[in-house]
């Protein structure tokens, strides 16, 4: 089963991000505000809930 994950705004000039690390395994439960993955841009690295 797939689920859409919406990337939050990371800055006005950030147009793309790369998933640098998944924080959860396939099938693992994720709560609404729990970090799911880590993204990297040219300006910031951050966890995404």
Automatic annotation (TrEMBL):
PROSITE patterns: BIOTINYL_LIPOYL (PS50968). It holds the Pfam family Biotin_lipoyl. SUPFAM superfamilies: Single hybrid motif. InterPro entries: Biotin_lipoyl, Single_hybrid_motif. Residues 2-49 form the Lipoyl-binding domain. Signal peptide: none annotated. This is Biotin/lipoyl attachment.
């Amino acid at each position: 089963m797939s689920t859409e994950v919406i990337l939050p705004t990371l800055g006005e000039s950030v147009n793309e991000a790369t998933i640098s690390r998944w924080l959860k395994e396939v099938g693992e439960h994720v709560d609404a505000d729990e970090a799911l993955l880590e993204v990297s841009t040219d300006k910031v690295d951050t966890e995404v809930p």
